[in-house]
Amino acid sequence: MTGSPPTLPPPPLLPRLVGIGSWAIFLALFLASAHFTNFSLQTLAQGIPDFFAFFGKMWPLDWRALPEIGQPLLETLQIAYLGTLFGGILAIPFIFLGSRNTTANPVVMWGVRGFLTLVRSVPDLLYAAICVGILSFGPLPGVVAIVIFTASVLAKLGSETVEAIDPGPLEALQAVGAGRIQQIVYGVVPQIAATMASYVLYIFEINVRASTVLGFVGAGGIGQLLRTYLSFFDYRSTAVLILIVFGVVLLIDAVSSYARSKLI
């Protein structure tokens, strides 16, 4: 017995329309972005010789710049360290006030979350520029900018970690009449301590990188020296500085990654 082969039913219309619409939006955003930013592969290709010529000016390296780099580099690390330390301390109350299972009032929770979102919407370089206008030039504006960045990011990550904990210990503490502070200290902190330490180490890595450019707006650190070298077209010293920063960041990244692998 023979007959026509069975045919599959056509796919639903709505998913197809959603797929076509998504690709259309993606293409429209790409074209609009390329147009308004003057993105051009031809211009990029024409700039490749200049790219290599620029890096060619960095050779041979001028190692006489090494004595000048030590102090600003140390200042950069100090900015990142202090900013991470004070930012971490400042984030603690926001972590618990912004977590659904540890805050006392939903209004407070949403208020804290909204405030943190608002703070995170401003980049750390802009905070540094604002702080330079208020506190004058030097590393202090850089520290303040890093504190604000660290507190806002750590509070966000921390509140999400708190909401993902096992509720059992909290419920047990509530059953025996423990207060909210006691619940946090004995029921929440032991569960999030390792993860939060890992976050702090990771944010310190980010802050070291961020601190290297804060000097461009006068907020201290090695960025000021980098700006000076570029202003005087001293590319050979610039190359030495970049190599030193690269090595330090790699070292911190390796140590931090090892420490975080032991924590989690």
TrEMBL record:
Residues 73-256 form the ABC transmembrane type-1 domain. The chain crosses the membrane at residues 20-41, 79-99, 125-149, 184-204, 210-226, 238-259. It comes from the Bacteria. It is found in: Cell membrane. Keywords: Cell membrane, Membrane, Transmembrane, Transmembrane helix, Transport. InterPro entries: MetI-like, MetI-like_sf, PhnE/PtxC. It holds the Pfam family BPD_transp_1. It is a multi-pass membrane protein. CDD domains: TM_PBP2. Belongs to the binding-protein-dependent transport system permease family. PANTHER family: ABC TRANSPORT SYSTEM PERMEASE PROTEIN P69 (PTHR30043:SF1), PHOSPHONATES TRANSPORT SYSTEM PERMEASE PROTEIN (PTHR30043). This is Phosphonate ABC transporter, permease protein PhnE. It comes from Thermostichus vulcanus str. 'Rupite'.
